């Protein structure tokens, strides 16, 4: 481990003034915040090659300390070139938040190759500024602050990565009573949850359950989602919980492992006892009186349809918060994203769908047509791969903002690349909006026969280069909600197919659809 003491490090003003600034990715900012707060102790900075090699080999840092996951920072080469790791006055990198405000200084003692155009930067970090702002900032307390307020004795930790319903609340109450422990609820707020719930909404839902819990301390922290590697992610969460003073952690998944000085409790499966309205062990309730907790999919279904979550399962205050954060699909923001070759029928269908929605007056609609976007939002962009990506990301970003505020955004660019379409879907999800990808799969031969703008003829004649389908690729979607080939469809049939899909899936009132 790079074993420095961050406190003993002073930064002269001129070093700060001349240092380059870089905004890391959101997951790296989350790691940075946990490094700065001490939640990742004994780590005090981003790891370098020796630690990373050792970690891969045996799950330990180079000095033998067990540590579950790589904590790394990747920086564009253009930024790294401005640093000189051999010179303490020229190796400081200012790390800024998404708005560009400095959060920390990195004393870059090592750089190493990662992928084309980027490199890893390793070294200790030191907080700059006042720790930042943002919703529920006051709840983002450091481990030292929290430990200072906890009563003596056992501390039961709960990681509330989903809202707490009555089965979880019953498990928590039981465990706290059995252990005679103080309760510490850790709410991960690094990124939207698996269910697309915004971090602020998750905090509100947890606070809404507060009067159903024993006396407790609630802390928000940017616990990163470590992707598919569940065991390592669980180990990291256990480490962080231990840093906050947790002695016993209530497992939220089977993969939670004891370690880092605390014990993990796997709670008993509870069910609702219809005889007296209590939640107790499954085995203690005769089957005919037993109601199992709703699954996440069932909860999602209630929210999608707009039916109130039942009181036997969810405290009304939590149900209200959840319904506010995840309104029924008919009121929730939605991005309808058409993709397909030029001439496949995207604009025609998108306009038809937009007209129908406007006629019904049910939803507000923004149409982001490919050609129109390129005249305004994306003016000046070419048809190079990089510019096409930029174009699709801009469209996706604007569409997601429309969705965030409950509107329907209809987009119809070619969007030939999977990755950019996936980014648009992710933007929508993070904004709490739905996303429906419509692949207009009309084959090239038919698009070419139509050749509305004469572009295919020009491309075949070699007069224009990089025409999608001719000498530029179109990556066929594998994740489309709907695939429509308009070769043998009338205009009306094509539009109705989309409207029916939206109606059948709860996004629209299905009644007026022919
Ligand atoms: N080289 C090349 N390749 C593809 N398309 C071309 C090209 N040059 C111009 N056009 C015209 O631009 C429209 C596509 O723009 P998009 O913004 O939808 O393209 S992309 O999603 O960024 O790839 C597209 O409009 P649509 O026919 O509505 O799809 C074409 O008319
Ligand atoms: N079922 C259909 N849906 C949409 N367009 C159709 C259909 N049948 C024929 N077309 C014709 O195909 C062409 C599609 O053009 P356009 O909608 O601009 O495609 P894109 O936006 O994908 O380039 C139009 O001339 C349209 O009249």
Automatic annotation (TrEMBL):
One GO BP: sulfate assimilation via adenylyl sulfate reduction
UniProt domain APS kinase: residue ranges: 332-485
Any one GO CC term of the record: cytoplasm
Residue ranges annotated for the ATP-sulfurylase PUA-like domain, each copy included: 25-114
InterPro entries: APS (IPR002891), APS_kinase_dom (IPR059117), ATP-Sase_PUA-like_dom (IPR025980), P-loop_NTPase (IPR027417), PUA-like_sf (IPR015947), Rossmann-like_a/b/a_fold (IPR014729), Sulf_AdTrans/APS_kinase (IPR050512), Sulfurylase_cat_dom (IPR024951)
Documented EC number(s): 2.7.1.25
This protein's record includes keyword Cell membrane: no
Biochemical pathway: Sulfur metabolism; hydrogen sulfide biosynthesis; sulfite from sulfate: step 2/3
CDD domains on file: APSK (cd02027)
Pfam families, sorted: APS_kinase, ATP-sulfurylase, PUA_2
GO MF annotation list: adenylylsulfate kinase activity; ATP binding; sulfate adenylyltransferase (ATP) activity
Domain of life: Bacteria
Recorded catalytic activity of this chain's protein: adenosine 5'-phosphosulfate + ATP = 3'-phosphoadenylyl sulfate + ADP + H(+)
Domain Sulphate adenylyltransferase catalytic, chain residue ranges per copy: 138-254
Keyword set, alphabetical order: ATP-binding, Kinase, Nucleotide-binding, Transferase
Role this protein plays: Catalyzes the synthesis of activated sulfate.
Name of this protein: adenylyl-sulfate kinase
